[in-house]
């Protein structure tokens, strides 16, 4: 079952549409990588999927129901976004930030810190003082504590050291495998994203330029490269994993 | 001409000697020595929280520090930040820190202009301050965005505006703090060329980034910082093979 | 010794009100980032509702009233309803005024809160019979002996209430997740929503609770403080000083400081009964000193460049640098000349006042709109100009153009002095510090008998090359030559300011306004440029003050008080604090200006002026979060955009 589904979504800012007529779905337990050059509209897709931005046409469905306008309600229902601005509070300490994310009776903070050992010694530091990468780890930790059923991550590797990325991506993968969360992962590092994801979609100018299983795209890096330049011919050629064309 | 630290004779363009930064109990930099020559691109890498940004903050005067900062023979470590910038030491910010109220063109122009009372008199009596866009905008491919405001740009391009701002108005050394964060693979490659171009005019460049393709391809030498200390320094090839660096920073998997 | 103890305890009741206002200010600021200037007025309303109930059993509402008892209502009922009405006023302020403004620039919320304050102050005398009213005792009237002095039990209870409130609020913020979330919401509401919390509800809770708490302490304390139609409103000033001592962070420190100020003022009262105490240190001294202490303390602990992750500056409305369009300038000048020539009497006086106020408004556009330094001291600078003008013309006979420049330079010097704290203090903190500066100027300069002669501050009429530029001539109230002189002076300075704003200086100002650290990193001398801004702005205001002086022939202190300064800032904000056009609109709206003349003379609703002005201020602030001219610009840009896109299709 799809936990997140975008149907014919067009969305943007003011008068310009940044995403046009986009179809996309994420199943429970699945990691979908959302790729594409800068300005392709990836962040816009994520903002629309959590309700920060209203589509001008088309619709967003989560757990089969239409997504509401109240972001906080969506978040409590389990649609959690880690935005590129990180959504952490600089004036609070690390522990206070984490305590805000915790839902009653859910995971406790120490359990999450166990999985992020680099964050553990910093729990009492004011977040504004942390280094960029440390803040990024906190943003992910905060999302984990919220027990997401749909996790939307914008550029996880931003500001993270290679070793840290290698540690964090498996945590995201494990969330899908163990907690059956649907993950939509925006990444600039194509190789890392394809190594983690089940499926991938490449956006270009707000439209799907290419989509397929991660394995297919790993095998055909040339197609991915072309899609980054906006080569729309590839569009129809790639099929979804069940063999059906993804686009009508 | 890559060379490792030991066989360098004469004074470098920027010399950082025995730099120590403490925040209360946290020691962010611990006796760091670092040098950048004319026309050289020097990389600075290290795990998150190793103290890279703290080093840039200290060198440019935004954090109190012990140690010496010498630019072209001149001691800068007692000067306030704006005087260090006017002496030719420019930086970018990891979090962007652009002027949200100014257009991209003005973000860059504000770095070039005459200031204070002289600027005031020139404004009232002199000719209009509108001038042609700074060449650094073209170099970074930002001309199309010149009249937009920073928050309308994607993250990657915002970082480039920061770089353009640092290049404008005469800088002999630029310290770039994760300028390529948020760039896609092609843009990052193109940015590598821009970094090389910056250095050809004799400018010294310090490049902090976690994009190993970029750092290892572009830099002449690379310093590696961990827990505030330099744990390795050498050519990209040496660094890639250094066991300590692999363990602390690069990790076992092949880097993208 | 027992006299000392007595005076200390006499300060408890007022100190308790200061304390509860200060804790509430800190709490509301923590929740919403707003400095709520209306906090004192919220208490005022509750106090009067309770008093009226206790006296006549009538519940007075802003519109209409309800008789709930025949004769005086029982004390508990009166207190409960009084407290509830304070809480409701606070909640309504949040729901109707602050919530619509939640994503607007922070200054718009401050302005709206000043509007609410003025609204309540002007409503109270209209709704309540304020002559001869007394608050009936609420608490037991006994005394106990402490260190040899008789201390009223009631005062101790009030004190206990205020401290309990502070402790509870502090515990809420420190130990509960809701409290943590409330603090987070002031920093980033979107991020808080993404974390699954509703910022609106958290804020509503804080507004309601602090409203009730302020009401409670004030109502219970009112019998020993006394009833009058405004004083509680002004208690927000010591409240602000105390909140600032706590750096707007700690509720407990704020409460303690509020109490200390109350006690300090009471002790000062004792001192002023002694002969050795100097005359100049009486009126206003008790209000000013705490602020000066705050100012010094904040400066010492402040940082010249904000540290990593430090407090962000307040968000301001967007700016489009002015383009020089000579045609528009000519049209405006021609229209003004026409307005001067075609009017006479009070209308012409209104036109001239508007032109002058436009210049003072412009000084705020430069300092607050462009440089981002919120200043409540513009009127104080103007007043300084006027006072020095009186001195140099009557005592030293300084001739005309120089008689404008010298006082303006004096104002400039004061501007720089008030600007020095701005090198290390920012945002809302700075606003309060400039308030301190204004208060100090008001107390030690305007209110100082040594400077203010009994016959008032007379001003000699200006002449130039034998030409009489005086404002009056025979029965003519405002001469053409004076009006044209004002136009020339203001026009020249406006032209220079416009060039400045679109030039390099304006760009550096805007850079500092958006990000001081980044500004320093591109080589801008942040400290020097800030002082330049303060100096320039004070110069403009100083000239404006001189022109006001010339237009009246004599200077009155009332035109330059702190509250006039506060009102001016609000007027300029709603007019549009980031543009020249905003300054022009603010000039038209200013007291005694064109609009006021219209209301006064044509509509004859002068006695409702302050109420109308307050309502207009709140409504305009809510409807135009970026100011009137900002809204007009947005609308026209929208229109142009629609037209061009249609043309492209
Ligand atoms: N004012 C401060 N007080 C306390 N600790 C601080 C302060 N500023 C920075 N730190 C800590 O100092 C360490 C070094 O920070 P720095 O920003 O220099 O790291 P970095 O190498 O740039 O990391 P990244 O790659 O994540 O950007 C971090 O652990 C950070 O939390
Ligand atoms: N707040 C905004 N206002 C106006 N345009 C925006 C805004 N945010 C993004 N855009 C524009 O929308 C397009 C898509 O941006 P974005 O979704 O951020 O792309 P990506 O995340 O793929 O880099 C870009 O052209 C960008 O300039
Ligand atoms: Mg993005
Ligand atoms: Mg860093």
From TrEMBL, chain A:
Keywords, in A-Z order: Amino-acid transport, ATP-binding, Nucleotide-binding, Transport
Transmembrane segments: none
PROSITE patterns in UniProt: ABC_TRANSPORTER_1, ABC_TRANSPORTER_2
Cross-referenced SUPFAM superfamilies: P-loop containing nucleoside triphosphate hydrolases
Residue span, ABC transporter domain: 4-230
Family to which this protein belongs: Belongs to the ABC transporter superfamily.
UniProt protein name: ATP-binding cassette domain-containing protein
The species this protein was found in: Mumia zhuanghuii
Automatic annotation (TrEMBL), chain B:
Pfam families per the UniProt record, alphabetical: ABC_tran (PF00005), BCA_ABC_TP_C (PF12399)
Keywords associated with the record: ATP-binding, Nucleotide-binding, Transport
Origin superkingdom: Bacteria
Residue intervals of the ABC transporter domain: 14-252
Gene3D superfamilies: P-loop containing nucleotide triphosphate hydrolases (3.40.50.300)
Cited InterPro entries: AAA+_ATPase (IPR003593), ABC_AA/LPS_Transport (IPR051120), ABC_transporter-like_ATP-bd (IPR003439), BCA_ABC_TP_C (IPR032823), P-loop_NTPase (IPR027417)
Gene Ontology terms, MF aspect: ATP binding
Name the record gives this protein: ABC transporter ATP-binding protein
Protein's organism: Mumia xiangluensis
Automatic annotation (TrEMBL), chain C:
GO molecular function: branched-chain amino acid transmembrane transporter activity
Keyword Cell membrane attached: yes
Classification via InterPro entries: ABC_transp_permease, BCAA_transport_permease, LivM-like
Compartments (UniProt record): Cell membrane
Gene Ontology CC: plasma membrane
Pfam (any one): BPD_transp_2
Transmembrane domains' residue ranges: 6-30, 42-64, 76-98, 110-128, 148-173, 202-223, 229-246, 251-268, 288-305, 326-343, 349-367, 374-392, 404-423, 430-451, 471-498, 563-596, 608-628
Key words, A-Z: Amino-acid transport, Cell membrane, Membrane, Transmembrane, Transmembrane helix, Transport
Electron transport found in the keyword field: no
Taxonomy, superkingdom: Bacteria
CDD domains: TM_PBP1_LivH_like (cd06582), TM_PBP1_LivM_like (cd06581)
Membrane topology designation: Multi-pass membrane protein
GO biological process: amino acid transport
Record's signal peptide: none
Family the UniProt entry places it in: Belongs to the binding-protein-dependent transport system permease family. LivHM subfamily.
Name of this chain's protein: ABC transporter permease
Native organism taxonomy: Bacteria, Bacillati, Actinomycetota, Actinomycetes, Propionibacteriales
């Amino acid at each position: 079952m799809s936990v997140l589904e975008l149907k014919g979504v067009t969305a943007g800012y003011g008068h310009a549409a940044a995403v046009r007529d986009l179809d996309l779905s994420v199943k429970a337990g699945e990691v979908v990588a959302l790729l594409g050059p800068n300005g392709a509209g990836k962040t816009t897709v994520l903002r629309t999927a959590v309700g920060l931005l209203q589509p001008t046409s088309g619709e967003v469905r989560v757990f089969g129901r239409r997504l509401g306008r109240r972001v906080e309600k969506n978040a409590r229902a389990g649609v959690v976004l880690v935005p590129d601005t990180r959504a952490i509070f600089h004036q609070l300490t690390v522990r206070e930030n984490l305590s805000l994310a915790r839902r009653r009776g859910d995971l406790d903070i120490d359990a999450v810190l166990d999985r992020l050992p680099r964050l553990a010694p910093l729990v009492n530091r004011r977040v504004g003082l942390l280094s960029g990468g440390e803040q990024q780890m906190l943003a992910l930790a905060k999302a984990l504590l919220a027990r997401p059923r749909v996790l939307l991550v914008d550029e996880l590797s931003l500001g993270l050291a290679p070793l840290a990325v290698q540690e964090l991506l498996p945590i995201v993968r494990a969330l899908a495998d163990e907690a059956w969360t649907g993950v939509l992962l925006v990444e600039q590092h194509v190789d890392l994203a394809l190594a983690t994801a089940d499926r991938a979609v490449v956006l270009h100018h707000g439209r799907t330029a290419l989509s397929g299983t991660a394995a297919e795209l790993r095998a055909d890096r040339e197609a991915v490269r072309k899609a980054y330049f906006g080569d729309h011919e590839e569009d129809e050629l790639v099929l979804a994993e069940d063999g059906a064309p993804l686009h009508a | 001409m890559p060379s490792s630290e030991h066989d360098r004779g004469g004074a470098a363009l920027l010399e950082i000697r025995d730099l120590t930064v403490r925040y209360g109990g946290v020691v962010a930099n611990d006796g760091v020595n670092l040098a950048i020559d004319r026309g050289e691109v020097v990389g600075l890498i290290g795990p998150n929280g190793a103290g890279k940004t703290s080093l840039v903050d200290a060198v440019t005067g935004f954090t109190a520090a012990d140690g010496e900062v010498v630019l072209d023979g001149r001691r800068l470590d007692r000067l306030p930040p704006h005087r260090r910038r006017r002496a030719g030491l420019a930086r970018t910010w990891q979090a962007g820190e652009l002027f949200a109220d100014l257009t991209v063109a003005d973000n860059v122009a504000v770095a070039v202009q005459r200031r204070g009372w002289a600027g005031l008199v020139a404004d009232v009596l002199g000719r209009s301050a509108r001038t042609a866009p700074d060449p650094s905008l073209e170099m970074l491919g930002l001309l199309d965005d010149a009249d937009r405001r920073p928050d309308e740009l994607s993250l990657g391009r915002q970082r480039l505006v920061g770089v353009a701002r640092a290049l404008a108005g005469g800088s002999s050394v630029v310290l770039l703090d994760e300028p390529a964060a948020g760039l896609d693979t092609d843009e990052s490659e193109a940015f590598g060329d821009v970094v090389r171009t910056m250095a050809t005019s004799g400018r010294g460049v310090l490049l902090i980034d976690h994009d190993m393709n970029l750092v290892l391809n572009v830099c002449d030498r690379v310093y590696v910082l961990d827990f505030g200390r330099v744990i390795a320094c050498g050519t990209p090839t040496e660094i890639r093979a250094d066991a300590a660096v692999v363990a602390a920073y690069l990790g076992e998997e092949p880097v993208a | 010794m027992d006299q000392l103890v007595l005076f200390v305890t006499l300060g408890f009741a007022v100190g308790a009100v200061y304390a509860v206002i200060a804790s509430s200010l800190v709490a509301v600021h923590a929740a919403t980032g707003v400095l709520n200037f209306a906090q004192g007025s919220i208490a005022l309303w509750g106090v009067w509702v309770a008093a009226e109930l206790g006296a006549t059993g009538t519940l007075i509402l802003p519109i209409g009233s309800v008789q709930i008892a025949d004769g005086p209502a029982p004390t508990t009922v009166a207190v409960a309803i009084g407290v509830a009405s304070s809480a409701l006023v606070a909640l309504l302020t949040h729901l109707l005024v602050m919530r619509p403004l939640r994503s607007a620039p922070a200054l718009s919320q401050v302005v709206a809160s000043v509007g609410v304050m003025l609204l309540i102050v002007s409503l109270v005398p209209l709704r309540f019979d304020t002559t001869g009213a007394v608050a009936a005792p609420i608490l037991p009237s006994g005394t106990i002996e402490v260190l040899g002095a008789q201390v009223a039990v009631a005062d101790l209870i009030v004190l206990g209430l205020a401290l309990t409130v502070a402790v509870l609020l502090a515990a809420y913020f420190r130990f509960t997740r809701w409290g943590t979330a409330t603090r987070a919401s002031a920093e980033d509401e979107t991020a808080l929503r993404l974390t699954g919390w509703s910022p609106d509800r958290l804020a509503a809770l804080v507004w309601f609770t602090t409203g009730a708490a302020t009401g409670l302490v004030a109502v219970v304390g009112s019998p020993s403080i006394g009833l009058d139609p405004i004083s509680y409103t002004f208690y927000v000033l010591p409240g602000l000083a105390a909140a600032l001592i706590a750096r707007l962070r700690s509720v407990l420190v704020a409460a303690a400081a509020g109490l200390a100020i109350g006690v300090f003022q009471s002790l000062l009262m004792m001192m002023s009964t002694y002969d050795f105490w100097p005359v100049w240190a009486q009126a206003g001294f008790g209000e000013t000193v705490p602020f000066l202490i705050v100012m010094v303390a904040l400066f010492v602990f402040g940082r010249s460049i904000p540290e990593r992750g430090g407090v962000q500056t307040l968000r301001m409305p967007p700016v489009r640098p002015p383009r020089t369009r000579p045609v528009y300038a000519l049209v405006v000048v021609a229209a003004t000349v026409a307005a001067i020539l075609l009017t006479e009497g009070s209308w012409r006086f209104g036109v001239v006042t508007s032109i002058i106020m436009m210049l003072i408004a412009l000084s705020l556009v430069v300092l607050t709109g462009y440089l981002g330094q919120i200043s409540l001291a513009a009127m104080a600078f103007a007043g300084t100009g006027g006072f020095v003008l009186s001195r140099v013309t009557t005592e030293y006979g300084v001739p005309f153009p120089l008689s404008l420049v010298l006082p303006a330079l004096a104002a400039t010097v004061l501007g720089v002095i008030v600007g020095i704290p701005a090198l290390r203090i920012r945002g809302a903190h700075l606003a309060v510090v400039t308030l301190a500066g204004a208060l100090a100027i008001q107390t030690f300069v305007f209110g100082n008998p040594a400077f203010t002669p009994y016959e008032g501050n007379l001003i000699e009429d200006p002449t130039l090359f034998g030409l009489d530029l005086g404002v009056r001539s025979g029965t003519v109230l405002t001469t053409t030559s004076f009006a044209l002189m004002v136009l020339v002076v203001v026009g020249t300075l406006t032209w220079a300011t416009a060039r400045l704003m679109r030039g390099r200086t304006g760009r550096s100002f805007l850079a500092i306004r958006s990000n001081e650290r980044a500004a320093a990193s591109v080589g801008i001398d942040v400290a020097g440029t800030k002082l330049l801004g303060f100096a320039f702005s004070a110069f403009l205001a100083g000239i404006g003050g001189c022109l006001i002086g010339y237009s009246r022939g004599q200077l009155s202190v009332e035109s330059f008080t702190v509250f006039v300064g506060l009102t001016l800032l609000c007027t300029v904000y709603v007019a549009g604090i980031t543009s020249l056009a905003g300054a022009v609109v603010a000039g038209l709206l200013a007291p005694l200006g064109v609009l006021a003349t219209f209301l006064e003379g044509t509509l004859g609703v002068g006695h409702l002026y302050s109420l109308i002005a307050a309502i207009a201020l709140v409504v305009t602030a809510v409807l135009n979060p970026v100011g009137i001219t900002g809204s007009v610009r947005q609308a026209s840009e929208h229109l142009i955009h629609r037209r061009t896109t249609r043309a492209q299709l």
